[in-house]
Write the structure tokens for this entry.
Amino acid sequence: MPTYVKMIVVLSLITLVSGLALGALNEMTYEQAENNILKFKKIPAVASIYTSLLGSEESKEVIEEKLLKEKISVDLGGETPELIFVIKKDGKPHAITLERFGQGFGGSLGVITGFLLETGQVVGIGITTMSETPGVGTRVTEAAFVEQFSKITESTIIKVKKDGGSIDAIAGATISSRAVAFAAEQANIEFKKHKDKIIQSVNQ
């Protein structure tokens, strides 16, 4: 066998083995990565909505543990089932959350939005993932900005004021502010579109 053929065979084998090894490693770490996102990003975001909506003397850890048990998957026609967290009041479903994404300055920006089941009113948001500029775009997590989304009414246009909406953008961080508003508005549209199915799934 010519030397160059041997080299091609060896390189092909190395590439194949490396690819299989990386694939196996990715499969092994994927579930752990998803669990970390759930535990350290999504659950705290939902917990902030829970506390804002209901108030609570329970510890952060107790609330987050409770929310971990109150999640369901609902098929809303997307590529994968929708992960929905259920916020209960007096033991009964009171509100739910949906996560959507906007394009921030540093990339995709994740927002979980809470809705009252009975009225469909937006009752708050929590930021899940982002890569915004520290001290500028990251200010979308500040209470002064986030609390605007707990005062949404039927007449509220969930866009920043520069886009004809009702939300005050953070000075110097319009793109990040716009991404949050966009994500919340997309969640609002999705909830209204699938409200009956969501309520049915939650009450099963």
Summary: The chain has a mean pLDDT of 88.
